[in-house]
């Protein structure tokens, strides 16, 4: 009997498809089999128009419910192709009704210290300290007080196709990755309409957030006269590069083992550090 739900992702281009095939596919398959998901990786653009070619392919996740195959499923779980799944994770669709979009709230807006540190590390970032600013900087009304990360979503073709297509057709990309592609308008439309089921944050843990918030010593600080930045740089110069690499791998696996899904969000090159077959803390630390 055909499964009633599927996991869908994009892996477009040799680099992304190879990464998904080598790291995500063997990691996702046991989870899909355990909970009865079909696994679908789309390796070609769904829209080849001139307009589509001028913006990130990430926007095209808004078109997955428009595909013929989507209509055969009750629920589709969208997962970005730079995410690894923990074997202990429960079924992500459990408790998400068909009329709601399951998504994880962006945790960064509750951590002012993190935001200040992140904006210092990323000068090109769009400065927004609140969900309201996150939307208003894009040109949307600042009347929503929550934001979700669009890297993981539980969707229903029956209920959500039209709103995803609306976002795709009616909004444009502002610039580079600092604008988060489709995420701002998609989050706004769904949160404003009251269509979001807020899932356990462990279903979309951003490694970049964890790194900056809890492991800042792993990052090379920007040139600065700030005393703390100078001290951090000196520490990194003292620590052996191999030791620092091991610290990074251990940090990633510590976060992974306390998460359901770990999202590398633009740091795909670090996915190979996940020891996803580890079964205990001792395996991680050995």
Name of the CATH class: Alpha Beta
Give the CATH topology: Spore Coat Polysaccharide Biosynthesis Protein SpsA, Chain A
Backbone CA Rg = 19 Å
Number of helices: 10
Mean of the pLDDT scores? 89
Give the CA-based shape: globular
Which bin fits the share of residues in helices? Answer: 25-40%
List the strand order in the largest sheet.
2-1-3-6-5-7
The structure class reads alpha/beta
> Beta fraction of the residues?
5-15%
Q: Identify the CATH homologous superfamily.
A: Spore Coat Polysaccharide Biosynthesis Protein SpsA, Chain A
By CATH, the architecture is named Alpha-Beta Complex
Largest sheet: 6 strands, mixed
Unreliable spans are 278-286
Give the count of structural domains.
Answer: 1
Tally of strands: 9
Order of helix and strand elements from N to C terminus:
EHEHEEEHHEHHEEHHHEH
């Amino acid at each position: 009997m055909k499964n009633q739900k599927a996991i869908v992702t994009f892996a477009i281009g040799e680099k992304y498809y190879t990464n998904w095939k080598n790291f995500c596919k063997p990691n996702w398959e046991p989870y899909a089999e355990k909970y009865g998901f079909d696994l679908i990786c789309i390796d070609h653009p769904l829209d080849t128009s001139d307009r589509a070619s001028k913006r990130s392919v990430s926007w095209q996740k808004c078109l997955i419910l428009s595909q013929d195959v989507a209509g055969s499923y009750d629920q589709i779980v969208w997962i970005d192709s730079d995410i690894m799944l923990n074997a202990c994770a429960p079924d992500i669709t459990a408790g998400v009704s068909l009329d709601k979009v399951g998504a994880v709230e962006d945790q960064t807006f509750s951590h002012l210290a993190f935001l200040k540190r992140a904006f210092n590390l990323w000068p090109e970032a769009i400065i927004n300290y609140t969900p309201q600013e996150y939307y208003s900087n894009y040109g949307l009304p600042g009347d929503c007080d929550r934001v979700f990360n669009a890297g993981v979503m539980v969707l229903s073709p029956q209920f959500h196709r039209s709103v995803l297509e609306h976002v795709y057709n009616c909004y444009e990309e502002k610039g580079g990755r600092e604008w988060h592609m489709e995420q701002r308008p998609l989050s706004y439309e769904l949160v404003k309409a009251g269509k979001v089921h807020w899932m356990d944050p462990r279903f979309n843990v951003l490694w970049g957030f964890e790194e900056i918030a809890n492991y800042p010593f792993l990052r090379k600080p920007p040139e600065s006269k700030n005393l703390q930045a100078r001290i951090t740089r000196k520490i990194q110069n003292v620590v052996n590069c191999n030791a620092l690499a091991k610290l990074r791998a251990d940090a990633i696996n510590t976060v992974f083992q306390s998460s359901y899904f770990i999202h590398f969000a633009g740091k795909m090159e670090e996915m190979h550090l996940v020891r996803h077959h580890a079964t205990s803390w001792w395996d991680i630390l050995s």
